[in-house]
Amino acid sequence: MFGPEFEAGCPSCSSIADGFNGFHAHLPNRAALAFTAISRAPLEKLLAYKRRMGWTFPWASSFGSDFNYDYAASFTPEQLHGGSEYNFATIGDRTALFDLDSGPLAETAASAGASLPEFLQETPGMSAFALSDGEVYHTYSAYSRGLDGLWGAYQWMDRAPLGRHGDERIWVRHDEYGGVTA
User: Fold this and answer.
1) Residue spans of the chain under pLDDT 70
2) What single DSSP character describes residue 133?
3) pTM for this prediction
């Protein structure tokens, strides 16, 4: 998640993207697949953040298009009042969250340099497409906890003796840890 007004990518989404950097080169060479991350921030912001994080995977901007809205990964301010769909379910009015000044959601929004209303407009999601006879087909989407299987760190944590149990801390970007990073 990296909205147009964000100063940096969402830290938990950035953690997921750290894993893209390792496998994206294998996909076209092993399974004839193309991989591209897409965010709504302008391309210049995405490229600067990509350099900061040391990522090499392809990253495109959907700034000014409906792409993220069409695949239910972004919401207009009006859609946050309820009735829109996310993760294959109707969401309720999210505007009550605008006034939160503490807690994980507020902390994560602040760490991305976004206001809470701006942050709530962006949600994690992934979609797959197939090209056949010149036609593009939407074949799969996953959202929210459906993305856990793509998050490499969770796969390792879930196999540890205590798993994710009790870890309520928010994620930080790999270049912001004070201790061991490699």
Assistant:
1) 166-167, 180-182
2) T
3) 0.88
